[in-house]
Design a protein that fits this description.
The chain is α/β, with parallel strands linked by helices and about 300 residues long.
């Protein structure tokens, strides 16, 4: 996507007035943005924190929507992930070195390697949990080198993350779990929100489970809820870290099959796994991690 600013062509006798208005608007924008950042630093608990996150997310959405965006066939061919000569550190210890690869739109990639080889750290680098110290890393249009925290939050609205241990809110229903995501990411239209929740539940085969509590679902169903949660904001990329590590073989196959269906609809998917059986059953591109290197 290319963001371009369109400057209106005005008559000569209105140029000075327009410049003055634009300066005033710019000053107001900067003051509003500064005030927003100061508010974010305040300590807010419980529902107040959720409401503040929703307010900030809504402002960010309005800023993004205010920009004029143009899509071309050339842009669509650009990778959604680009990594060039990057190193990954964990507490100043080099984990992976000189990494280079790209991921295209709608591509599904397995990331395989032994336990502790660095699979999770690679995913964390890509969604901003681990900082980029050197090299070039671009994810969904954002450069990850010295990325600001506010931009990490904006980036993550374009991503979906699926964890091995589910990380659901067990004191809330399935519907409320998904509603929470829409709330903190700035959804205001209740009708559209509920339509999207119903849509993603249908996508993962759990359309009738919205009223259930997480503990009332099987492990496979809970993981499907996690995938639905990751899909709510229609992400460009989904990162799944050992998503079937706690599931039986049959359920694991169904989860991987679901990821393949999602990628065919245009969402890129990266799955960290060591389940070679399913990789053979549902083949796709593979990144191998071994002795601190990433190869294909």
């Amino acid at each position: 996507m290319i963001n371009i600013d369109i400057e209106p062509v005005l008559e000569n006798n209105t140029e000075k007035t327009t410049e003055t208005e634009e300066n005033l608007l710019q000053e107001n924008h900067e003051q509003t943005h500064q005030q927003s950042e100061e508010n974010m630093n305040a300590t807010i608990n419980g529902e107040e924190m959720e409401e503040k996150e929703a307010e900030v997310a809504s402002k960010d959405k309005e800023e993004e929507c205010s920009e004029v965006k143009i899509e071309t066939s050339e842009i669509k061919e650009q990778p959604v992930i680009e990594v060039n000569n990057a190193d990954i550190y964990q507490k100043n210890i080099l984990i992976l070195s000189n990494i280079s690869f790209t991921v295209k739109q709608g591509e599904l990639i397995y990331v395989v390697g032994k336990t502790g080889s660095g699979k999770s750290n690679l995913l964390k680098l890509l969604y901003g949990e681990v900082p980029v110290k050197n090299g070039e890393v671009n994810v969904a249009g954002y450069s990850m080198y010295k990325i600001k925290s506010k931009n990490i939050q904006r980036l993550r609205r374009k991503l979906g993350i699926v964890f091995q241990d589910f990380q659901l809110l067990y004191d809330r229903s399935v519907y409320e779990n998904l509603k929470f995501v829409t709330k903190v990411t700035g959804w205001k239209d209740r009708v559209k929100r509920d339509e999207r929740i119903e849509e993603v539940l249908n996508m993962v085969g759990l359309k009738t489970k919205g009223h259930k509590m997480p503990h009332q679902l099987s492990g496979g169903e809970q993981q499907r809820i996690c995938i639905a949660r990751a899909l709510v904001n229609n992400p460009e990329i989904i990162f799944a870290d050992e998503p079937t590590g706690n599931l039986d073989p049959e359920t694991s196959f169904d989860i991987f099959k679901l990821f393949h269906e999602i990628s065919k609809k245009g969402t890129s998917v990266m799955i960290a796994t060591h389940n070679y059986t399913i990789i053979n059953q549902l083949p796709s591109r593979v990144l191998y991690i071994n002795q601190g290197k990433v190869t294909e």
